[in-house]
Design goal:
Helix content is 21%, strand content 30%. With 145 residues, the chain is an alpha+beta fold.
Length: 145
C-alpha cells in the first residue's frame, strides 16, 4: 500500500504524457488499448495518478456508463507487489461510491497475455464474472448511523 509520502492526484483534464506512456503504454500488448496516443493528447475518462516520493508509480482510470464505472489500474513494473494496485482500486471504489454508482467493472480483453492472473487478482478484490464477459464488483453503500 502507498506509504505516507504517497498521494492520489486527480488529473483534470487528463493528457497523455511520458509517465502514462511508460506505465500504461508500456504494458504488454493486449493489456490496454492506448496505442494511438501521442504526447499532449487529451485522454477520455477520469484519471488519477499515484505519486510516491515525487515519482508517478501508478494510474487509476474510471469511465462512467449507465450508473456503473469501468475501471483500469496500471502500476509501474518496479512498484508491483507493493499494494499500490489494491490502493488504486480502493480509491476508485470510493470515488464511484461518492458518485452514487452501482458497480465497478472491468473487461479482461481476449488478447490479454495473462488473463488467469488478472482474473485472480480481481476476484481477490471482490469481482465476480458476469454473463456479458465483464467482471463486476458491487459498490457497498455505507449505512448512516
Amino acid at each position: 500500500m502507498p506509504d505516507m509520502t504517497s498521494s492520489f492526484v486527480h488529473e483534470s483534464p487528463a493528457y497523455w504524457d511520458s509517465d502514462k506512456a511508460r506505465i500504461v503504454g508500456g504494458a504488454p500488448e493486449g493489456v490496454f488499448d492506448f496505442a494511438d496516443q501521442h504526447e499532449g493528447d487529451l485522454v477520455p475518462g477520469d484519471w488519477w495518478h499515484v505519486e510516491q516520493d515525487g515519482k508517478i508509480v501508478g494510474y487509476g482510470w474510471m469511465d462512467t456508463v449507465w450508473g456503473d464505472a469501468e475501471v483500469l489500474v496500471a502500476v509501474d513494473p518496479e512498484a508491483r507487489g507493493s499494494g499500490i494496485g489494491t490502493s488504486i482500486m480502493d480509491h476508485l471504489e470510493q470515488e464511484a461510491r461518492a458518485r452514487g454508482l452501482n458497480h465497478l467493472y472491468n473487461v479482461i480483453p481476449d488478447g490479454h497475455p495473462d488473463p488467469t492472473t488478472l482474473g485472480r487478482w480481481l476476484a481477490k478484490r471482490g469481482f465476480s464474472p458476469s454473463e456479458d464477459g465483464r467482471v463486476l464488483r458491487r459498490i457497498v453503500r455505507r449505512q448512516l448511523p
